[in-house]
Amino acid sequence: RDQRPVEGGARDVEEWRYLVEQFFSSELIDEALEVMRCESRGDPLAYNSSSGASGLFQFIPSTWAWASEGAGFGGVSPFDPTANVGATAWLVQRSIDQGKDAWSHWTCKP
Question: What pTM was estimated for this model as a whole?
């Protein structure tokens, strides 16, 4: 797990490249950072009060519940950067494996 302290506020998504590289295949790294930039501007504490979407990749609570579990992060907060990126990579790969668009679960597209 990432042991860096988490602070809120927009950041350069490149700050999270090291984490994205741990979970995504090399051909999806730049796409993932692009989606992250659009969804949260790199703020791990981003929160949308109307949808409940949370964290770097803006998971809505219902999707977070099953995707975080499937990715091995069940019970972890969507504001945890490692869990959020890990669950995103798991969900993207699941979509690809099902023959769907990799980013079908996100409003922002690369």
Answer: 0.90
Sequence-ordered list of residues with C-beta below 8 angstroms from that of 105, at least 6 positions apart, any chain: 63, 91, 95
Identify any residues that bridge with 54 across adjacent strands, giving them in sequence order.
47, 59
Tell me the C-alpha distance between 5 and 93, whole Å: 28
Evaluate whether 85 touches 12 at the Cβ level (below 8 Å).
Answer: no
Residue 73 identity (one-letter amino acid)? F
Whether the CB-CB separation of 94 and 105 falls below 8 Å is answered with: no
pLDDT surpasses 90 at 99? yes
E strand or H helix at 96: helix 81-97
45-97 pLDDT, tens digit per residue, is 999 999 999 999 999 999 999 999 999 999 999 999 999 999 999 999 999 99
Cβ burial, residue 17 (10 Å; 0-12/13-18/19+) = middle
